[in-house]
Amino acid sequence: MSPADKVLLSFVCLLVLFPVKSSAASLEISNPTTVATFGPRGLVSLKDSKSGAQITLTKDDWLLVIDNNTLRSGDAQPKIKKTAPGEITYEYELSSYRVQVLYRLGVSWKFVSKQLRVLRTSGSEFTVHRVVPWDVVLQNTVDSAYVPSTYVPQFGATIEQSSTLLPGKDLGEFLRLASGHGLFLTIQNPFLQAEHDGQGASLGYAPEMPWRQSWGQFASDIACIGAYSLSRRRQPREMIPEWQPAPRLTPDDGMDQSEISAFTACVRAFLLSPAPEPISVEVGWTLNDYQIDVGTPEGQAEYKRIIDTTAELGIKNLLYAPANSKLSVRMNSTDSWSWEYVLWLNLGERIRKGDWDPLKDPIPASVAEMLSYAKQKHV
Hints:
A hairpin with a 3-residue loop joins strand 1 and strand 2. The termini are far apart. It contains seven helices and 20 strands. It has two domains: 27-268, Distorted Sandwich (Beta-galactosidase, Chain A, domain 5); 281-376, no CATH class. 28% of the residues are buried. Helix 4 runs parallel beside helix 7. By secondary structure, the chain is α+β, with helices and mostly antiparallel strands. It has helices at residues 3-25, 159-165, 257-268, 297-312, 343-346, 348-353, 365-376, and strands spanning 28-30, 34-39, 42-48, 54-66, 69-72, 79-84, 87-94, 97-104, 111-120, 125-138, 142-146, 173-177, 181-187, 193-197, 200-205, 209-212, 218-219, 223-229, 281-283, 317-319.
């Protein structure tokens, strides 16, 4: 082979190899906290840089049921494109349908989003019966799974009973790994169906939504996936029903603190007008505080325990509405709810009668005592 032929052959090899290397590099998106790697069929790994949690997926599929057609990601070879620094798209040609899957990683996100978009259909009108953005299998050993669901403890219902009483269903899925790490799956939809089987998990919903192409592309609700390290500190799965004594030991069968933090951060990332920090309020009425008489030493001591608990939970606002026999009597209330006696720090009746003027009269001692104690607790 002549020197010229060798140079030409080397040049051709570079042209062939360079796109492959460039394409491989384009299958990773990252920010300061999260690295997501993609393969021929979707997401293959997710790493949280801070905790070191790294999740490897052996499958990342999706499914759509449109009219009488079931579209599966495994039935076509997608075209992959990195459309922006934090975006990768997969486009599938499935019979008369074209479906795009968009993955995104925001600058400050600790999770990756996934959205299915129907770019082309056979007809101008169609109905989307089912959407399953997540159908994954993990390489990491899965110890267990936790599924948060619709729950109305204020009605005395268990989680299982709540699922039959209300239209809401599952809210997401948390996979707990043998390594001490975790993976959450969720979709911006409260009517989810979560399934878990060994190393696999799926999450979807049934919108039963008619659509017209004239409205634009049909886009699924955004799905999210994120990795984290488990704290090993879990909350109870259910609240203690009203009027029932608390168990001697607090159950730890609910969400891990890291699962709560990861899910909360995911939700906050999509708020249109996020507050610097949430405003939390402890509503004393839900604790039946109107039955506590802070006009007595015993009542004051009991209510101070409510203030203590509020402070321990990090809540800075308390809706204060106990009774106070030194200042008001419920039977003298004139409103239809007979609630006047707890309003204005139990001074509602006196204000109405003209017996107490907030502009000039001193604060009664029983009120001042509770205000002073709350101030000490930063409530």
